[in-house]
């Protein structure tokens, strides 16, 4: 087995300090603006004192910007660019290693029909789930089954070729009034229903008690209730449209997770924030 060439080795893996700075920036992106150095230290397995020193260094180097309040930090544009470059470097390194190791991965899919071991099938993504379908076209994604499978069963696939076609995933975030602003009684239910009807989501997510109360008024059920920020981003990554109800600061957490997912997977998930508090005039905020 050959060795990975030196020029393929990512810069951040050559220095423990650089790797730690990369990890801290990633954790800040997930938590900003309310960043707890103790939480970051626990996640990375280092002391709070060490985290504090790295924060000071990252501020000096122009990667972190401190807010007015204590523990309020956010990444600078320079930091976003650094994260993108580091992730691209790591992805290139992993691809090189897989080639060197002749890595063969088995991919799971659901059988849409009766499949026999060795059969070549096409692959389709249906509402976020990968399906093995009868082979019809060599120009689209395909793979070879390693076992028999009945319709609806899982089947392992190897020799994957081509790219799986995905629709553009999107997250529509509905901003709701906090309980101090009147909660669900101060939400524009008609507007929320209209947005839901126009968006035609694959999945509905909710964060917090106010959001659940609004869903009750709409007669809808949430399919995503826990780990909503990451779950919404990953669902959109699979090409789904996700409709999320959230209050105040929770909106920022969802946006941060979407941006982190776009960086990590080199994706292009789009999102839109609509303010559905009564008597609040706003324009839709679109971010790509």
Top keywords for this entry?
disordered N terminus, alpha/beta, five-stranded mixed β-barrel, 3 domains, Arc Repressor Mutant, subunit A
Structure explained in plain terms:
The protein starts with 15 loop residues before the first helix and ends with a strand. Helix 1 (16-31) packs across helix 8 and helix 2 crosses helix 3. It folds into 3 domains: 6-101, Winged helix-like DNA-binding domain superfamily/Winged helix DNA-binding domain (Arc Repressor Mutant, subunit A), CATH 1.10.10.10; 107-161, no CATH class; 170-287, 3-Layer(aba) Sandwich (Cobalt-precorrin-4 Transmethylase, domain 1), CATH 3.40.1010. It is of the alpha/beta class and 288 residues long. 38% of the residues lie in helices and 22% in strands. The chain has 8 helices and 12 strands. The protein has helices at residues 16-31, 37-44, 48-60, 77-101, 189-199, 209-218, 228-237, 249-265; strands spanning 64-66, 73-75, 107-111, 120-126, 129-134, 142-145, 154-161, 170-176, 203-206, 241-247, 270-275, 285-287. The radius of gyration is 23 Å and the shape is flat. The strands form 3 sheets. The protein has a 5-stranded mixed barrel with strand order 3-5-4-6-7. Strands 9-10-8-11-12 form a 5-stranded mixed beta sheet, sandwiched between helices.
Itemize the secondary structure elements and their pairings.
Elements: H1 16-31, H2 37-44, H3 48-60, E1 64-66, E2 73-75, H4 77-101, E3 107-111, E4 120-126, E5 129-134, E6 142-145, E7 154-161, E8 170-176, H5 189-199, E9 203-206, H6 209-218, H7 228-237, E10 241-247, H8 249-265, E11 270-275, E12 285-287
Parallel strand pairs: 3-5, 8-10, 8-11, 9-10
Antiparallel strand pairs: 1-2, 3-7, 4-5, 4-6, 6-7, 11-12
Helix pairs in contact: 1-8, 2-3, 7-8
């Amino acid at each position: 087995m050959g060795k990975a060439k030196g020029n393929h080795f990512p810069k951040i893996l050559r220095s423990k300090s650089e790797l730690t700075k990369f990890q801290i920036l990633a954790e800040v992106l997930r938590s900003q603006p309310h960043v707890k150095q103790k939480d970051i230290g626990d996640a990375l397995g280092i002391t709070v004192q060490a985290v504090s020193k790295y924060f000071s260094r990252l501020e000096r180097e122009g990667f972190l910007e401190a807010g007015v309040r204590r523990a309020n930090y956010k990444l600078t544009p320079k930091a976003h660019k650094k994260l993108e470059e580091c992730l691209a470097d790591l992805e290139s390194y992993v691809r090189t290693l897989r080639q060197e190791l002749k890595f063969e991965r088995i991919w799971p899919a659901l059988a849409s029909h009766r499949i026999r071991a060795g059969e070549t099938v096409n692959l389709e993504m249906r509402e976020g789930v990968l399906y093995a379908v009868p082979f019809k076209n060599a120009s689209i994604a395909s793979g070879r089954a390693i076992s028999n499978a009945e319709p609806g069963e899982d089947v392992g696939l190897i020799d994957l070729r081509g790219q799986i076609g995905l629709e553009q995933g999107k997250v529509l975030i509905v901003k709701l009034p906090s309980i101090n602003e009147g909660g669900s009684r101060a939400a524009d239910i008609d507007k929320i229903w209209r947005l839901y009807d126009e968006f035609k989501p694959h999945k509905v997510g909710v964060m917090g008690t106010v959001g659940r109360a609004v869903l009750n008024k709409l007669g809808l059920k949430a399919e995503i209730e826990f780990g909503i920020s990451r779950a919404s981003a990953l669902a959109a990554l699979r090409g789904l449209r996700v409709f999320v109800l959230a209050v105040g600061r929770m909106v920022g957490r969802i946006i941060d997770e979407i941006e982190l997912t776009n960086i990590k997977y080199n994706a292009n998930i789009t999102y839109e924030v609509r303010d559905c508090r009564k008597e609040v005039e706003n324009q839709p905020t679109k971010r790509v």
